[in-house]
Amino acid sequence: MISLCGLAVCPLNLSDYGNKFLMMACATIPCHVRASFSADVPSLPADPTSHKLPRQRQCSIPSSFSIEAHNLSFNISRHNKFVPILKNCSLQVPPGQLWMLLGPNGCGKSTLLKILAGVLHPSDGTVNVNRPNSFVFQNPDHQVVMPTVEADVAFGLGKFSLGSDEVRCRVAKALEAVGMIEYLQSPVQTLSGGQKQRVAIAGALAEACKVLLLDELTTFLDENDQMGVINAVKKCVRGPEQVAALWVTHRLEELKYADGAVYMEDGRVIMQGDIASVSHFLNRTCKFYI
Ligand SMILES: Nc1ncnc2c1ncn2[C@@H]1O[C@H](COP(=O)(O)OP(=O)(O)OP(=O)(O)O)[C@@H](O)[C@H]1O
Ligand SMILES: [Mg+2]
């Protein structure tokens, strides 16, 4: 054990990583999950005959959106065949809003989220996502890994040169924001799935994240935990920091908590807009299966 600004954390080099979740991916995520990261699946160029791998283009023009993507494509090679996974996807999410990302299994939601998080590089297109941003996975056991809630939320702060008072203050504020302050000293293995998700979100908030990219946080949660996580995210986006959140879900009842939604099918963005318009579209086209 070593101490991070007075908080007990596990023996890891805290100075040389940029993202707790990526580091945890290497340390804790089973091989089948890790296989979806960029190191294992390089994207192919838009032109399959070209041998040059493309670089992700970060748009440098200031934008009024917290999340912005234009004409993103992502291609892979499967059995020596060129397979397009994302096709010309564009979307925008303003600051201080929660948007849902919807679509049937395999349509490319998680792939799009990973590109927005910088975990995967697109084959083509432009990405502009405010930093710092954080990607929270479906399974909280892959990311809430420290012995106590306090240590887990403090973990990501190791890369900043912060005094112990500042660390404690940030940890407390982040846990307040997600309604978990009374669990400060609790061992993480005693938490429910929803409580772990809220601790994972607190970790991102403690790092002053401007954007939360959330992949099916509530799939395995009961109604109580589901509402706890939704309320925690809503509180973040309504707060003074104007955090923007993009939330992948299959649970259509969660739409009513969002400010807007993006609907995908077969690697394409089919529809995006306010909740009334997207709900109307889904009802009209009988998209009940997502
Ligand atoms: N590492 C990978 N290697 C090969 N194909 C992949 C990989 N990751 C994703 N895919 C393929 O890309 C497509 C989109 O997958 P993705 O996980 O983004 O879908 P999704 O919309 O998140 O689905 P779900 O709702 O089931 O989570 C699928 O056809 C999937 O098989
Ligand atoms: Mg997915």
Automatic annotation (TrEMBL):
Pfam families: ABC_tran. GO terms for biological process: transmembrane transport. GO terms for cellular component: chloroplast envelope; membrane. InterPro entries: AAA+_ATPase, ABC_transporter-like_ATP-bd, ABC_transporter-like_CS, ABC_transpr_CbiO/EcfA_su, Molybdenum_import_ModC, P-loop_NTPase. Residues 67-290 form the ABC transporter domain. PROSITE patterns: ABC_TRANSPORTER_1, ABC_TRANSPORTER_2. One of its GO terms (molecular function) is ATP binding. It comes from the Eukaryota. The keyword Mitochondrion does not apply. Keywords: ATP-binding, Nucleotide-binding, Transport. PANTHER family: ABC TRANSPORTER I FAMILY MEMBER 10. This is ABC transporter domain-containing protein.
